[in-house]
């Protein structure tokens, strides 16, 4: 849960003026690693107020525009509420905020097995959307991947064993990807269970901060890390359920299925890197100091049987 902004740090009257509402209650919400979200209640409506702790005005505006564009294309996600002057982002304080309509539903950790095919179906529909429409025409490319600058930091990690493991596995991924032409589609980039809202037998995808253009196999790999992991290991049954739903809309070739385990490992390496940087370097947290090491065990579970598909 992101708790970078507390309730008492929010200028509630300024929020009320910006949106023309009368807040009665503001309650922190669990989930999210980079921002702080709150359930905002008025006499007649419910909203989610998200303080974008890691954003400036430009990036906050892009997030709002992209979220609205995806909603208009039929992706089940939240509706961004504009301010009284039509802006999609407000500044009731130093940090930008988004106000979104409340979606009635629940976050399940883990997402129930029976709902994994639906998660796969929604993800496949996202991967088949047109990218050049208003609001999505300027999507960045491959932002979920580690940059050369990121990879250069690995050799300086204080956890030397983890540094060597990360560098070695990344080298294997690069070798396995060599010569393959990547097809760029719209990807979510962070499909973990806390970004999926359950509404009966339907789902809504939340948190579009990592939306970009990239290889759908890497996005599937990230979804496998986020939704098919049980007790730190890949669960083949959960992965198959996710893929069964996905392939109802977007068929995977034999080559895709053969490469997917590599991209699951790739996604796990990205998560491991960012966990280490966030919890050990940027915002040291003793309770999460070893959180990155979960991915070491997860990768081992994938490598034990690359024929899980």
How is this structure best described in words?
The chain is an alpha+beta fold and 309 residues long. The protein has 2 domains: 7-101, Phosphorylase Kinase, domain 1; 113-304, Aminoglycoside 3'-phosphotransferase, Chain: A, domain 2. The protein contains 9 helices and 11 strands. The chain has a 5-stranded antiparallel β-sheet. A hairpin with a 4-residue loop joins strand 2 (36-41) and strand 3. Helix 3 (116-127) crosses helix 7.
Structural class: alpha+beta
* SS element count, helices: 9
Radius of gyration in whole Å, from Cα? 20 Å
What's the total number of strands? 11
Elements, N to C (H/E): HEEEHEEHHHEEEEHEEHHH
How many strands, what sense, and barrel or not for the largest sheet? 5 strands, antiparallel
CATH class of the largest domain: Alpha Beta
- The chain-level mean pLDDT equals 94
User: First CA to last CA: what distance?
Assistant: 33 Å
In percent, how helical is the residue content? Answer: 40-55%
Q: Determine the strand fraction and express it as a percent band.
A: 5-15%
CATH superfamily of the largest domain: Aminoglycoside phosphotransferase (APH), C-terminal lobe
List low-pLDDT spans: none
Q: Based on the structure given, which CATH architecture of the largest domain is correct? A: Alpha-Beta Complex
CATH topology (level 3) name of the largest domain: Aminoglycoside 3'-phosphotransferase, Chain: A, domain 2
């Amino acid at each position: 849960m992101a708790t970078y902004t507390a309730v008492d740090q929010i200028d509630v009257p300024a929020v009320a003026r910006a949106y023309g509402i009368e807040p009665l209650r503001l309650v922190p919400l669990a989930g999210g690693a980079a921002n702080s979200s709150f359930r905002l209640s008025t006499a007649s409506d419910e909203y989610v107020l998200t303080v974008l702790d890691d954003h400036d005005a430009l990036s906050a505006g892009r997030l709002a525009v992209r979220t609205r564009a995806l909603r208009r294309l039929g992706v089940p996600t939240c509706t961004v509420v504009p301010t009284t002057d039509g802006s999609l982002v407000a500044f009731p304080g130093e940090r930008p905020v988004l106000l979104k309509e409340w979606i009635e539903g629940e976050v399940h950790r883990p997402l129930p097995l029976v709902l994994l095919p639906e998660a796969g179906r929604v993800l496949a529909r996202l991967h088949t959307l047109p990218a050049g429409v208003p609001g999505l025409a300027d999507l960045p490319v491959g932002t979920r991947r580690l940059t050369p600058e990121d990879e250069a930091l690995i050799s300086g990690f204080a956890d030397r064993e983890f540094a060597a493991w990360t560098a070695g596995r990344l080298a294997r991924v690069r070798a396995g990807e060599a010569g393959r032409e990547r097809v760029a589609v719209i990807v979510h980039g962070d499909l973990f269970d806390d970004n999926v809202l359950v509404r009966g037998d339907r789902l809504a995808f939340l948190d579009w901060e990592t939306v970009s253009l990239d290889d759908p196999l890497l996005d599937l790999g990230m979804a496998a890390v986020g939704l098919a992991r049980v007790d730190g290991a890949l669960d083949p049954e959960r992965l198959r359920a996710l893929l069964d739903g996905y392939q109802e809309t977007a068929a995977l070739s034999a080559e895709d299925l053969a490469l997917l385990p590599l991209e699951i490992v790739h996604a796990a390496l990205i998560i491991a890197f960012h966990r280490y940087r966030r919890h050990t370097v940027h915002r040291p947290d003793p309770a999460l100091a070893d959180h990155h090491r979960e991915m070491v065990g997860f990768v081992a579970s994938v490598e034990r049987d690359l024929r899980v598909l």
